[in-house]
Amino acid sequence: MNRNQKIVFQIVLVLILFGLGAIFVNNLIINLIRTGIGFKFNWLIKPASFSLAEPPLPYSPSDSYAWALLMGWINSLKVIFSSLLLATFIGTLIGFLRVGKNSIFSMISAAYITVIRQTPLLIQLMCWYFVGFLSIKNNLFFNIRNIFNISNKGIEILGLHLSSEFSALLFGLSVFSSAFIAEVIRGGIKSVPIGQWEAYRSLGISEKQGFVKIIIPQALPAFVPGLTSQYLNLAKNSTLAIAVGYSDIYAINDTIINQTGRAVECFIILLFSFLILNLLITKIMGIINKSIMRSRI
Amino acid sequence: MNHMNLMLIINLFNKLKKYLLSKSKKKFFNFVALVILISLSLKFFNWIFFNLNWRVVTSNLNLYAFGSFPSNEQWRPTLWFASLFSITLATIYGPKWNWLRKNLFFGWIGTVPLGIYLLKGGFGLAPVMSRNWGGLTLTIFITSSSIFFSLPIGIILALCRRSSLFLIQKLSSFYIDVMRAVPLIAVLFFGQLLIPLFLPFGVEIDRVWRAILAFTLFVSAYIAEDIRGGLQSIPKNQIEAANSLGLNTFQINLFILIPQSLRIALPALTNQLIGLFQNTSLMSILGLMELLGVSRSILANPEFIGQYIEVYIWLASVYWILCTIMAFVSKKLEQTMTTNKGY
Description:
Chain A is mainly alpha-helical. Chain A is 71% helix and 5% strand. The relative contact order of chain A is 0.11.
């Protein structure tokens, strides 16, 4: 193809795509008019008139839809960042055990990884919620002098109360993501050349110190891309909160759609929420990556 | 001098003692850990097999497998399962005849139209409405048809993303990036609630096909990225060699780039397939009667109320076994596809 042909070809293709898009949008407008819903955003300031189980900020049903959406946003961020930390912790532990020398622990972590990775997250979440928390009898499962107790109303640590929905989601997401993070960690450690291990051993550095000071710093850059994609997956998976009844951004959008029937607007809001969230996580991981790269010589 | 020697021997002896002790200590701990592990797992299996009431599974096996498929037509999904099973066996253990190896790929592709024909009916079979499809049949049907449609779309998107044409490259990048940023449940929701709004009045797509469409839109973006990774790892001199042989761009893509990138991307594609298979369970939230949806309706039955543990263990093991089989088949395929063993 010469240059002119290329330009014509692209223009034709774009015109076809625009034509298809125009047909779809036309259908949409016709359908919206036919059903009498229309397309506007002024409902956002009307009172939401549904209650939330655990609003992070003061909220009452007379507050606006926009405020309810903000509550959903904060709830989402809360569960995403807390399970991100917990998942990284568990995943790193399992990953280290997997590459470690102790064959029993290595076997256990391999079994953990395959069982968690090969079963759907939704079933795991429901298991945590219905089997893990809601089926606790006598209202109390575990109690240490009121400092830490687990009951069918959730977890309480030093006066900080986590509802059973939040806890089930937290553990479900963390455990699921930790299996993937463990694989990332294992891959990162395996990417350090074997010569590095031999070198610190021949220098007489102890196993522990060599691992912490020689191997880990070199494996860090290999962790970052894998971890970033796992964190993004975790953020996207957090929308399964609706299965356990935790009011995150998706669940609140769903409630609003059921109440007002404004599916198109809510879908656009949801789309932008997640684009922003993705951008946020990618930016933060980019900064971390830069600082890791800078700390190397 | 003698004194020095003695010191050296004592020192050596001490070191040896320390070494042996630490070794045996480690072994001892390993032994204790193993004993605890075995006793715990024995207890667990004992509890699973004797304490739980498995009637919720055994009396509903038909529902788990076929949903509400008419009982006198259930040989059709069974036949489909059998064909899938036999082609899996042929892939793993089949004889290494060349013609079989070459046509296996088309056999896999052919399972999807066969499934559509057997489930839907028509052409001599009694038609069955898609709302009667359910259970494992529906799960596997959604998985296989979505991958069937999204693989070619993913390949096209990947090629477009590497294209030298500015607008095409930007458009496909935009599509892939947006799709990868959005959670799956939002796309499925789009499929169930919004696709009907985008269709002209009177035209309808039924729920199963809308789900397949949504899965296809979603998975093709991920597949495109995996294939792009495969395309990037093909050395440039392959293209130069093809050019010097006089192949045009279309031929290069079809005969040189796509087969190689598919082979390289096979592990990643398998992960996508396994992910897709697991994610079909999300359709239960949106009201389809696939494996998890059927289980939820069984759990809502007063006879089996509260038997969550049995049902979830059963479901998890079904998903686990099928995912493991998929991973195993892909490993086998990877081995057989590595054609250039000798140079």
